[in-house]
Write a structure and sequence with these properties.
The chain is an alpha+beta fold. It is built from 19 helices and 25 strands.
Length: 508
C-alpha cells in the first residue's frame, strides 16, 4: 500500500531540472536463493537510475506477488516486506517517470493477466508510439462511460487502477490473448514497439528479458552459481556476486527457466546506444559494450583539456558526476586536481518540502566550498552537462564569494539542444539554455571567466564506440528513428488522453 501522497523533490536548485535518469531494471532466476533480497541489492546498485518509486515481484511457480511504493529502495523495503516475497525468481524496478506521472499507480513492476497466467513487467526506457498502443489497448478493452458521458475503453489490471505509463500498455497487450503463451505474445508484440525499451518480465515459471532493436539502453546477463541475473548495468551484477556473461543484444528476447537460457531474435539489430549513458547516466563502475564508463569519462576530460586549455591553479569537479572528467582534465593539462567542493551525500529525494528560507540557500543544500582551498585560486570547474544553467550560475557565484580569483567552466559533453524521447527527461527545448544562446552568451549568463564544451567528436572518441552505433540526438538533433507528431509525444500524453473514472478504479 502507498505510504502517503507526499511529493518528491530533487537535489537541485528551485526551478532547476537537470538530466533526470532513466529507470533501472533487475531480474533473477535462482531456485534456492533469497531472490527478493538479491533483487533488493540489485536495485540498490541501480538507485541512481530512478529515485521516485521502487518495486519487486516474485514468483513461487504458482503465484506472483508484487510489493511497490513511492520512495528510494531503502525506504520502500525492509526485512518484513522482503520476507513476504518468496519464490525462485523475481523482477525489480526503480523508477524515474518519463511517461506518466510520479504516482503510486505508475510504480513498477506492473501486473496483468487472465485465468491461465499472470505477467509482471519492469521497463527501462520510453516508447514513442504510446498513442498508437493506447488505441490498440482500447480496441481490446471494455466500454466504460466517463463522467462527461463519453464512452472510454479500458482493460483489466494496471490500466483499470489508473496507471498512465507506457509500461502498463505493454503489460495489457502481453496479457491480452489467453490462447497464446507469454513468449509467443512477446514475439508478436515486441516488433510493434517503437522507442527505447529494456524489459524484464515473468509469468509464474519463466523469466524474460528483451531489448529494443537500437539497444538504446544497456541490459546485461550475469551468472550466479545456481541461477541467472539480468540487470540494467554490470555494477548490479557485481553487487549480487554474479559474473558478467554478455550484453543482451538489440532486438533479442531471452527466456530463462528450469531448462536453462534460450534466446530468440524478434528484430534485426540497428545499434544506436545512448551516448549520454557514458557521459552521465550509468555508474562509473559499469561497463557498456566493452568500455568502462569511468575510463570513458576520464578520457572526455583529457579531450576537454586538449580542446579548451586555460592557465589556472586548480582543477575541481562538480561532485560527483564531474569527478572522472576533472581527473582526466588535470592529467592532460598538468594543472593540479583538487577537491574544492564538498557534497552532502544525504541530499537527494525527500518527502520534506523546504521552506522559503531554506530554498534561498539554493545549491548550498547540495554543495559547499572549501574556502581555504579555493581562496585566491584560478579555478577550472568541470561538470558533465549544462541544462538550464541555474545550478552552474549559482555555483560560479558561490565560488567567487568564497574567494576564487577566476572561475573557468569546462563541460564534458556538447551543448544540449534537443529533447530526449527515449528515457531521459531533459527540460523542454525552449528551456534548454543552449537552444537560444551561443557559448559566449552562455558564459556571460553563468558569470564565468571562460566556458568550454567538449566537441561531439571528442566525446564520441572517448566512448571507443563507432559513431554510427551511438545515439547523439540530444546534442545533434539527429534521432535514430522517425518520431510521431508532437501531439502524440510527451510525458503526460496518456494522462491527457485518458483518466479513468472513480467508478472504473474501484471496480474489481
Amino acid at each position: 500500500m502507498p505510504r502517503g501522497d507526499g511529493k518528491l523533490s530533487h537535489d537541485l536548485l528551485p526551478g532547476e531540472k537537470g538530466p533526470q535518469d532513466a529507470c533501472g531494471v533487475f531480474g533473477v532466476w535462482a531456485p534456492g536463493e533469497d531472490v527478493a533480497k538479491l533483487t533488493y541489492y540489485g536495485l540498490y546498485a541501480l538507485q541512481h537510475r530512478g529515485q521516485e518509486s521502487a518495486g519487486i515481484a516474485t514468483s513461487n511457480g504458482h503465484q506472483i506477488l508484487v510489493y511497490k511504493d513511492m520512495g528510494l529502495v531503502s525506504q520502500v523495503f525492509d526485512e518484513r516486506s522482503l520476507s513476504t516475497l518468496r519464490g525462485h525468481m523475481a523482477v525489480g524496478h526503480c523508477r524515474y517517470s518519463t511517461t506518466g506521472g510520479s504516482t503510486w499507480e505508475n510504480a513498477q513492476p506492473t501486473l496483468g493477466g487472465h485465468e491461465t497466467g499472470t505477467v509482471a513487467l519492469a521497463h527501462n526506457g520510453n516508447l514513442v508510439n504510446s498513442a498508437e498502443l493506447r488505441e490498440l489497448v482500447e480496441s481490446y478493452g471494455e466500454e466504460i462511460p466517463g463522467d462527461d458521458g463519453r464512452i472510454r475503453r479500458i482493460t483489466d489490471g494496471e490500466l483499470r487502477r489508473g496507471n498512465t505509463s507506457d509500461t502498463a500498455l505493454v503489460t495489457a497487450l502481453l496479457a491480452h490473448d489467453e490462447d497464446s503463451s507469454l513468449e509467443e505474445a512477446a514475439m508478436a508484440l515486441l516488433p510493434k514497439l517503437q522507442g527505447a525499451f529494456c524489459f524484464v518480465f515473468m509469468n509464474e515459471d519463466t523469466l524474460y528479458a528483451a531489448r529494443d532493436p537500437q539497444g538504446l539502453r544497456p541490459l546485461v546477463i550475469g551468472r550466479l552459481e545456481r541461477g541467472w541475473v539480468v540487470a540494467s548495468e554490470t555494477a548490479a551484477l557485481d553487487i549480487v556476486g554474479a559474473s558478467f556473461v554478455r550484453e543482451i543484444e538489440p532486438g533479442e528476447l531471452v527466456a530463462i527457466d528450469e531448462d536453462g537460457l534460450r534466446t530468440r531474435q524478434f528484430a534485426q539489430p540497428r545499434r544506436k546506444g545512448c551516448v549520454f549513458e557514458y557521459v552521465y547516466l550509468a555508474r562509473p563502475d559499469t561497463t557498456i559494450n566493452g568500455r568502462t564508463v569511468h575510463e570513458a569519462r576520464v578520457e572526455m576530460g583529457r579531450a576537454l583539456a586538449r580542446e579548451h586549455p586555460v592557465e589556472a591553479d586548480l582543477v575541481i569537479p562538480t561532485p560527483e558526476s564531474g569527478t572522472p572528467a576533472a581527473i582526466g582534465y588535470a592529467q592532460e593539462s598538468g594543472v593540479p586536481f583538487g577537491q574544492g567542493l564538498v557534497k552532502n551525500a544525504y541530499v537527494g529525494r525527500t518527502f520534506i518540502q523546504p521552506s522559503q528560507t531554506i530554498r534561498q540557500l539554493g545549491i548550498r543544500l547540495k554543495l559547499n566550498p572549501l574556502k581555504h582551498v579555493i581562496k585566491g585560486k584560478r579555478l577550472i570547474v568541470v561538470d558533465d552537462s549544462i541544462v538550464r544553467g541555474n545550478t552552474q550560475r549559482a555555483l560560479v557565484r558561490m565560488l567567487r564569494e568564497a574567494g576564487a580569483a577566476e572561475v573557468h567552466v569546462r563541460i564534458s559533453s556538447p551543448p544540449i539542444k534537443w529533447p530526449c524521447f527515449f528515457g531521459i527527461d531533459f527540460a523542454t527545448r525552449a528551456e534548454l539554455i543552449a537552444t537560444g544562446l551561443g557559448v559566449e552568451e552562455i558564459r556571460t549568463s553563468l558569470g564565468a571567466d571562460s566556458l568550454g564544451y567538449i566537441s561531439e567528436e571528442g566525446m564520441i572518441a572517448a566512448t571507443e564506440q563507432p559513431e554510427h552505433e551511438l545515439c547523439t540526438a540530444c546534442f545533434s538533433g539527429t534521432y535514430p528513428m522517425e518520431l510521431p507528431s508532437e501531439d502524440r509525444l510527451g510525458k503526460s500524453l496518456l494522462e491527457l488522453e485518458f483518466t479513468p473514472t472513480e467508478e472504473a478504479v474501484r471496480r474489481p
